[in-house]
Write a structure and sequence with these properties.
The complex is a heterodimer. Chain A is mainly alpha-helical. Chain A has one domain. Chain A has 9 helices and 2 strands; from the N terminus they run ααββααααααα. The radius of gyration of chain A is 22 Å and the shape is globular. Chain B contains 11 helices and 13 strands. Classes of the chains: A mainly alpha, B alpha/beta. Chain A: Keywords: Membrane, Transmembrane, Transmembrane helix.
Amino acid sequence: MSLNRMGLGTVVAKQLQYKIKAYYGVFSSLVLVQVIALLLSVGGSVFSGTTIYGLSLDYTTYMTTNVIAFTILWIFIHAIIMTTKTERENSFSFVSNQLSNNISNCTFLIVASIAGGITAILSGYLLRVIVYFFIDIDLLIGTEFYYPPGEVFQGIVAMICYLILIGSVGYLLGVITQLHRMLPVLLPFVLAGILIALERIFPGSFMAIGEYYFQETNVFPFLFKFIGSAVICFAVAILISSRLEVRK
Amino acid sequence: MNVIECEGLTKQQWRLKALDELSFTIKENTITGLIGRNGAGKTTLLKILAGLWQETNGTVRVFSERPFNNLLISANAIYVDDQMQFSNRLTLSDILHEAGRFYGNWDAELARRLFNYFSFHPKQVHMHLSKGKKSTFNMIIGLASRCALTMFDEPTTGMDASVRSDFYRALLKDYLAYPRTIIISSHHLEEIEDLLEDVLLLDQGRKYFHLPIDELKEYAVGLTGRTEMVMQCSANQEVIHTRQIRDDLTYSVVKNDNLPLNKARQLGIEVSKVSASELCVFLTKKTKGGIDDVFK
């Protein structure tokens, strides 16, 4: 019987196709999460009590931070779930090795991030439409009716970058917890400890990290920072898990 | 051509040596039975051969390559056991379809026919199958994938008698039509001995022997007779097992190595055959005496 030779690329492509089918639920949960977040946003946040020249002013702000926060949480949780024992064993029932499995998982997370990013940003416009048509408001401020496609596109790309980064961090943490059964319990404490220690030793480092990622306004450095960090996380995850045995 | 070559293969699991300096080779297109007691290291060996686990020491080569984490091995060696897991978001027919995309030699027609013969429902979910049905389904994947190295680890777990015999027959027919290297681990040697060409007997992680099944059937004889006669006859011989049947009647299993069988018969000893499965049990018995001695 002659041997079947399959390149890494072929196996990864087949696995990705398999995973999109098997993780169909990831996309339906995305829809669910965003609908819930939208419903929470429809109420808006009411501010009142500003009085100018005897004129009392009440205003309501509608924001999609809910949707964005929920979508980020969604990718983080799914990235961790992908690294659990059951999911790993499912992937190894057919042709696979650790490298191909990791690469197809990362690719899947990127695909999911793209879906999540596009829908999260577009749902912001959906919210405006809902508020415009269904909520009884007197005056709509700060909303134009024409959005330049370039701006929308920028928003989507930025959101995708956030999601890919968060997904890669989740994936890395998930892989680390697979190394020892105590780690799922210990890791959160260890992480919190490290962060607290960091803040104690170098005050302001939290802010610095936040600024490093979120204050970047130039497109290319932004992409470089986010994609670069994600690549590092994925690479470390691949390195760590390359020695793991399956179906222990 | 040798499909599998192991040299001093050792697997350390925590403090226990699951495999200990194991050396053997398996030729292409043979059916080998991997026999041994519980915990003898059968599953460990198969998982290492399938590339799922990593060897601690020694060399292991499958198709001349190191199997661990190797795509060539993953594509050409399938390991089937009752722990196989599939995503529960896929139906059984989805799983067969996916398997077909991954395995180059996949025979969709065979898979479909077996699937219908064992009356599976295409929309069922693997997780909800009963133990025997799960084994049957996994067996279909093992057969239809036609991997050059096919390994079944306790394939008949939970199967009823009729499915078991169907399985053995299906395996043999498919093997004859598409010869490949097959390893079956089982506790029921008597059920599979007609199928096997070779037997690899493991005992506590070590190789006890690796023999063609025909030699194994001639490996030892049973001597039944008056105790002193049997003792006399088996003196200076390798006695594998002895049991006192009555006060003066003894049954001994003795290695058939230039035994003076005619002389034994003249002494009134009854010479009987020892089946391969009985022999394997006797050979790998850890303690003297039986379960009865525990309750004495």
